[in-house]
Amino acid sequence: VQLQASGGGLVQAGGSLRLSCAASERPTSRTVMGWFRQAPGKEREFVAAMRWSGSGTWTSDSVKGRFTISKDSAKNTVYLQMNSLKPEDTSVYFCAAGSRIINTSVRVEAAYDDWGQGTQVTVSS
Questions:
Q1: Measuring CA to CA, which residue among 29, 33, 104 is closest to residue 71?
Q2: Are 32 and 49 contacting, i.e. CB atoms less than 8 angstroms apart?
Q3: Are 112 and 101 in contact (CB under 8 A)?
Q4: CA 24 to each of CA 18, 76, 115, 121: distance values in angstroms, whole numbers, following the listed order
Q5: DSSP code of residue 20
Q6: Would you list the DSSP string of 34-95?
Q7: Cα–Cα distances in angstroms (integers) from residue 99 to residues 36, 49, 86, 87, 90, in the given order
Q8: Strands 57-59 and 3-6
Q9: Alpha carbons 90 and 120: distance in angstroms, whole number
Q10: Element (H, E) at 114
């Protein structure tokens, strides 16, 4: 599946952004849609994920309570609502999809089959 990420930009600390990830075809119910991010000089890290069926959502501790993952089934699109943004949230954000991911592997980058292009999020202090 092809993934198209959008919605990044420049925002002040405390502000909000919503990222979108549109899939080229309807994900299966078992598909896990995830968001990862990578800051300059750092490894890519897990941010949030959800199973397309709605049976599970996962969020990293670093963004819990501030970021929310959701979907619009009619648009084959998953969103990442980011509130109370901090300068340390500055990264390139990537969306990803995997159809054979078990719950214990949703935070593992290598578990995902398809990746979208990144979208830059910059939070100024």
A1: 33
A2: yes
A3: yes
A4: 20, 8, 12, 23
A5: E
A6: EEEEE-TTS--EEEEEEETTSS-EEE-TTTTTTEEEEEEGGGTEEEEEE-S--GGG-EEEEE
A7: 17, 13, 32, 33, 29
A8: unpaired
A9: 8
A10: strand 114-115
Task: Name the residue type at position 10.
Answer: L
Please, which contacts does 81-85 make with residues 24 or more away whose CB atoms are closer than 8 Å?
81/16, 81/18, 82/16, 82/17, 82/18, 82/19, 82/121, 83/16, 84/14, 84/16, 85/11, 85/13, 85/14, 85/15, 85/16, 85/17, 85/121, 85/123
Q: Are 33 and 4 in contact (CB under 8 A)?
A: no
pLDDT in tens, 44-101: 999 999 999 989 999 999 999 999 999 999 999 999 999 999 999 999 999 999 999 9
Nearest to 56 by CA among 110, 107, 2, 4: 107
Return the pLDDT at 95: 98
Residues 71 and 52: beta-carbon distance below 8 Å? yes
